[in-house]
Amino acid sequence: MSETADPPVLHARALRKEYGKGEGLVRAVDGVDLDIRAGETVAIMGPSGCGKSTLLHLLGGLDRPSGGEVLLNGRRIDNLSEKALARMRRTDVSYVFQSFHLMEELTAVENVELSALLAGCSPRTARRRAEELLDQLGLAGRSKFLPSALSGGQRQRVAVARALSNEPLVVLADEPTGNLDSAATLDVLQLFDELHEYGQTLVIVTHDARIAATADRMFSMRDGVLIDETRLTGGTNGKLGALVGLED
Amino acid sequence: MGRILLVVRLALRDLRQRRTEAALLMIAILAATTTLTLGLVLREAASDPYESTRAATNGPDVVAHVARPTDLALLEELATASGVTAHSGPYPVIAGRLQAAGRTSDVQVEGRDATIAAVDQPEVTQGSWVSGGQVVLEAAFADALDVNVGDPVTLGGKSFTVAGVAVTAAMPPHPAASCIVTTGCVNGAIPQGRNLPARLLHNPGLVWLTQAEVRSLALTQGPMSYVTNLKLADPGDTQAFVAANSGALIMQTWQDILAEATDLAKDSQILLLIGAWLLGLLAIASLSVLVGGRMADQTRRVGLLKAVGGTPGLVAAVLLAEYLLVALIAAAAGLVIGALTAPLLTESSAGLVGSAGTPSLTWSTIGLVTAVALGVAVVATAVPAVRGARSSTVSALANAARPPRRTGWLIAVSTRLPVPLLLTLRLTARQPRRVVLGVVSIGVTVSGIYVLLALNTFLGDQPGTGAYSEAQVIVLRHVLGVWMGVLLALAAVNAIVITWATVLDNRHSSALTRALGATPGEMSTALAVAQVLPAFAGAVLGLPGGFALFAAINAITGGDGDRAVLPSLWQLLTLVVGTVFAVAVLTTVPACIGGRRPVTETLQAEPA
Amino acid sequence: MRQEVVLAMLAKEPSHGYQLRARLREALGPLGDAMNAGHIYVTLTRLEKAGLVAVEVPADGADRSDRKAYGLTPDGQQRVAEWIAEVSWPKPDLAEFHLKLVAAASAGLADPLTVVDTQRRELLRRLRDAQRAAMAESARSNAALLLEGIVLRLQADLRWLEACEQNWTHRRSGS
Description:
The complex is a heterotrimer of chains A (248), B (608) and C (175). Chain A has one domain: P-loop containing nucleotide triphosphate hydrolases (Rossmann fold, 3-Layer(aba) Sandwich). In chain A, 31% of the residues lie in helices and 25% in strands. Chain A is built from seven helices and ten strands. Chain A has helices at residues 52-59, 82-91, 108-118, 123-136, 152-164, 182-198, 209-212, and strands at residues 10-19, 26-36, 41-45, 67-72, 75-76, 93-96, 170-174, 201-206, 217-222, 225-231. A six-stranded mixed sheet of chain A has the order 6-7-8-3-9-10, sandwiched between helices. With 608 residues, chain B is of the alpha+beta class. Chain B has a domain at 84-232. Helix content of chain B is 63%, strand content 13%. Chain B is built from 19 helices and twelve strands. In chain B, β6 and β7 form a beta hairpin. In chain B, α13 (419-430) packs across α17, α14 (432-465) packs across α17 (520-557) and α15 (470-505) packs antiparallel against α17 (520-557). By secondary structure, chain C is mostly helical. Chain C has helices spanning 3-9, 17-28, 37-49, 74-85, 94-107, 112-136, 142-174; strands at 15-16, 53-56, 69-72. Chain C is elongated, with a radius of gyration of 20 Å. Chains in contact: A-B, A-C. The A-B interface holds A 53-54, 57, 62-63, 82-83, 86-87, 89-91, 94-95, 97, 99-106, 110, 113-115, 117-120, 123, 126-127, 146-147, 162, 166 and B 400, 403-406, 411, 415-416, 419, 422, 429-430, 509, 512-522, 596, 598-600, 603-604, 607-608. Chain C: InterPro entries: Tscrpt_reg_PadR_N, WH-like_DNA-bd_sf, WH_DNA-bd_sf. Chain C: Residues 6-81 form the Transcription regulator PadR N-terminal domain.
C-alpha cells in the first residue's frame, strides 16, 4: 500500500454494476471512483434510481460489481467468495437500512446482539455489549420491547445499535431517514452526528438534504455516475446571521 | 361475461406470478386425490365382485351336498323343502387331478348340463360353456394355472380341451374352495414335515364337465358326491333354513361363501385403507402448510384488491377461481393416476376375488374425489375472503405476509449454540406449527414403514405356518409394495414442500441474517437442519406410533399379534438413520437455493 | 429585474428589443405578463451607457433601421459569465435563478445542471450550519424555532433545485 499517513478506509475504483443484457442493459453504477477516509461522514445524494443503493451494496460486499475494484482497509473485497464476504460483514462493514430490517420476533436487545452472536461472541459478551449500546443510544428502558412496540425513530436507533455492535470500520446507511417523520429524522440526525463526533466512518446514501448536510463531503449521483463532490464544511464561516439576512 | 373474464384473468395472473407455490399446491392436492381415488377404487374392487358375480350367475343362497350316492334322495327332498323357490342339480362331483402344460393340480370336477341352470349358471368370461370333450375352468384357477381357452389338459387320464373360463358364486374362487367331494380337501399351505392322507385334495381348483363325462370318469376315478344349489324365498334367513334341514346334508350359505371369497381381499383392503389413512394424513400435512401460507398471503392480497376498488365479492371470486382451477386439475389428474394405478394392485387379486374385469372408476368415486378437492379450494378461499371482508383494507395491507411467532425460550437457548444451529432454532421458533407438521409427516411415514416391515416379516414366515398360501403372500406383498411406494413418494413431496415453504417464508429474514454476516453455507445448513431435526423427532416418535398401528391392524384383522415378529433393533436404527438421511438429501437442494438467494434483491423488494 | 437578466438574454445572439421581450415572456409564462416593455428599453439604454451592450446596425439596409438590435460587448459577455457563476442567497430570487438556467442553456454559456449543482452545494453548506446550530440549541428555545424555520426554507429550496435538476436532465436527454 501507499505510504500516505491517512490511507482510505474504503476505496473504489472504476466500479461498475450492470443488470440485464442488450436492449435492456441497465448501468446502475457506471464507473465510480471513491475514497473514504477514517472518521469521515460521506453522503451520496441523488434521485431515486440513480444507482446509489446499488453503489452502497457494492461497497459493503452485499452485491458483486461487474467491473472495477473495492478495497476495504487496503484489501480487495470485490473478488472474495460469498463466505469470505459474509465474514467480512460481521466485523468490518455494517448496514443500516431504510426500512430498518429488524427481526419482528426478536426484542430490541436480541436484534442488536444478533450480529455479535453471528460473529462468534459469547452470549454473555454479546448481551452486555448490546445492552450498553442501547443505553448509549437512549433506549435503555426499551431493550425488551419488540420492534412493533417501538416508534420509527427508536427502531432505527436499534438498527444503528445493531450496526455498531461489532465496531465496524464503516457503517453504510441506505436512506436511514426514508421512512421517518421529521421529528424522528432529527433524532437520527443527532445520532449520526454523535457517531461522527465519536469518529465512526459513515457512508450515507439519501435523497434527504438534511441528512446529507450532516456529512463532511457530499457526492451527487446521477445515472450511475458520481458527478459532483462538495466539501460541506465552512458554509457560512460561522456567520449564521447571514442565513436570515441579518448580515450581508 | 366481462366480469367472469376479469376474474379469470386476475386468477391466472396470480397463479402465474406464484408458479412455485401453485405447483406445490397442485402436487399436494394431487397426492391427496390420487390416494383417495386408489382407496375408493380398491374398496369397490374388494366388495363388489362377489355381489356382481352372484347377480350374473343367479347364485345360490344355499349349496348342499351329500358324500354318498345313497343319500341322493335327501337332496331331492331338500329341493322341495319349504322356503325353497328354485333349485338346480343334484350334480355329480368327483375328485381328480388336472394336468396342463406341465403343471398339476387337484381339482373338484362338477358335472353340469349344457342347458342353462335355474340357479348357479356359471358366467362364462372367456370361451364357451361345457360340451362333450371340453372342460371349463373356474377363472381364478385358470389364472393360477396359466391355462387359456383352447389349451389341452388331461383330467383323470383323459384329454380335454379348455372350452372356457367362468366365474361362479357357489364356491369361493381359487385358492379358497369349499369341499364338495367325498375324499375331503385341505386348503392353505401344508405345514412342513406333515404327510397328507393320500386321497385328500390339496387346494383343489374347480372345473366343470358334462354330467355324462363326470359319470364316466367316476368309473375309474372313484366315488361321486352330489351337489344341489338352492334359492330361498328369504335369502337373508339362510341360517334358519340350514338349522331346519341339516342332518346328513352338508350345507353352505352364500354368506359363508362371500366371507371366504373376500377373505383375502378384506385383508388387503384393510391394509389399503390404513395406508389411505396414513397417506391422507400426509396429504393434509402438506396441504395445511401450503394453503395456510397462501391464506396469510391472500389476506394481504384481499386488502390490495379492496384498496383498488374490488368489492369483497369480486375478491372472493378471484380467490375461488384460482383454487378451483388448481383443485380441478389436481382432481382430474388424481383420478386418472389413481385409476391407472389401481389395476397394478388388483391385477392378481382380480381373479382372486373372482371378478372378471379390473376395477374401474364409478361416478360416486369421481364425485367424492372432486368434492374433496373442491372442498379444499372452498375452505382455502373462504377463510381469507371472510377475514379480508371483515378486516379493514388498511390493516389487511399492513399485515406482514405471515407474522413470525416469538418463542422466547428457544431464542434464548439458541444464543448458546454454534451459528448454524442458532439459525436453525430461530427458524424453528418462527414457525412452530410448521415444525409440528414436519414431525407429524415424518412420524406418520415412519409408522407406516414400521408396519410394513412387521407385515413383511410376518408374510415371509407364512408359507411355513399355513395362514396364507404362497400366491396370497405374493398378492399381499404386492399391496404392501404399492402402499410403500405411494407413502414414500408423498413423504418426499411433503419434505420438499415444507422445506420450500420454509425457504419462501423466511427469505426476508434469511437475506437479513446474511447481510449481518451469516455465510450462505450457514444459512443453507440452518434451513436443512430445520427440517432434519423435526424429521429425527418424527422418526423416533414414529416407532411407537408404528407399534400402535400394527397392534391396531392386528386387532382389526383379527390377526395373531403374538406370532408377529416385530422389526429388529438394527432395522429400527437403520429406519431412523435412513429417514434422517433421506430428509437431509431431499431438503438440501431447496435449502441451498434458499441459502444462496441474492441478498440485495430480497432486502429491496420486501419491506420488513 | 436585474440588468444581468437582460444581458444574459442577449448572450445567445444580438436581438431587437421586441425579440428580447418575447424571449422573456416565453421563459416566464404567465409571470412574464406583468413585465413592463418600457422597463426593458430603459435597462438596455443603461447597459449601453455602461458599455456592456452595443447597438448593431442591421446589414441589410435601411428599411428596418427604426428597430435597433442589441449585442453584447466583451465586457458584457464577461459580466454575464460572472453572473451565471454567482450564488445568490439569502434573498433567492426564484425568477432570477430560473432565467439564469434558461439563459445558460439557450446561449450555451454553461450547463444548467452545473449551475444547479453549484447552487445546491452552497445551500447544503448553509443547511449544515443551520442544522448544527439547531441541534446545539435546546429543543424549546426561541432560537431553535427560528433555526428550524431556516432549515425548512433551505430544504424547500433544495427540493426545488431537485426539480430543476430533473427538468433540465429531461430536456437535455430529450433534445
